[in-house]
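Recall that a protein's primary structure is simply its ordered list of amino acids. Everything else, from secondary elements to tertiary packing, is in principle encoded there. The following example makes that idea concrete.
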Amino acid sequence: MTPDILFFFQNHLGALPIYEALEAQIMAIAPNCTRKVQKTQITFKTRYGFAFVSFTPVRPAAKRPKDWLTLSFGLGRRLDDPRIDQAVDPYPGRWTHHVMLGAPEEVDDTVAGWLQEAADFAARKGKK
């Protein structure tokens, strides 16, 4: 664990195991991606960002798990799944999805599929 990651999670240490599971899944999908830790989010990208980790509260406080983080990713379509907390279309043909993860076990095959699709979608950006 790098110092910048530990600093990012300093007020959310309970969410660190969730992040570790998520990062492992992301690195399995896109082993050549880079990680950029900023003040409010961690970005995973190849040429373009495809997975973003933050503490953006996408659920009312009463419905949040004790420990949580928000995974955001972009796709060329809107996902209809009960685990998606929010989906917005900031640009035509691009949907940003937000999923609140509350346990390492929630980083499952479904999330892996979404991450793979997001990585593929980001790789096609800008290509005709």
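Residues 3-124 form one domain. The chain has one domain: 3-124.
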